[in-house]
Amino acid sequence: MVTPTLDNTLFVSVYGGDTQFSSLSFQIAGGQTVSATNLDGNLIASFNDKANSALGNAYTLLAGQSYVLTVTGVTKALTSGVNGSLSIKVRSGSVSFMPAVTPVPEPESWAMLLAGLGFVGFVARRRARKV
After folding, report:
1. Which residues are 87's β-sheet partners?
2. Count of CB atoms within 10 A of residue 84's CB?
3. What's the CA gap between 71 and 15, in Å, rounded?
4. Can you give the residue range of the structural domain that contains 57?
5. pLDDT tens track for 19-74
6. Could you tell me if residue 118 is inside a domain?
7. Cα separation of 2 and 64, whole Å?
8. What is the pTM of this model?
């Protein structure tokens, strides 16, 4: 979420190294997607609310109201021991994070699920024979 402190003054920048990302973009409040361009080895995308009409956004962001900031990127395979990083900078406002990372179950969870289903099936079949 991103919240401007004054009407029509929000400036958001997203930075990521081109060695880490093959593409990077962001979108505010369902508006037009702003794609990053390569500048000196960094992928950089920025949004200036004062100039929003140039980006095709027909709205003004209001002070104190929170808007959804969606950052999308495709990461490259990193060298072992190297961490990828993404920087989000906001002027004339604040940003709060609510990551939307989809968890992937571990193999042990799948094994327990299958064992439980197998046990329930075994019990159901055994009860069916007694009737």
Report:
1. 15
2. 13
3. 11
4. 2-104
5. 888 888 888 877 778 888 998 888 888 877 766 555 555 457 788 888 888 888 88
6. no
7. 10
8. 0.59
- Residue 78, in any domain of the structure: yes
Does residue 111 lie within any of the structural domains?
no
C-beta atoms surrounding 76 within 10 Å:
14
30 lies in a domain? yes
Q: What's the token pair of residue 102?
A: 């989809």
Residues 6+ apart with CB under 8 A from 7: 60, 61, 62, 63
CA 4 to chain centre: 20
Number of structural domains, the chain?
1
What is d(CA 60, CA 108) in angstroms, rounded to the nearest whole number?
Answer: 49
Candidates 57, 8, 62; CA nearest to 31 is 57
Q: How many CA atoms lie within 13 A of 97 on its CB side?
A: 9
8 Å CB contact between 35 and 126: no
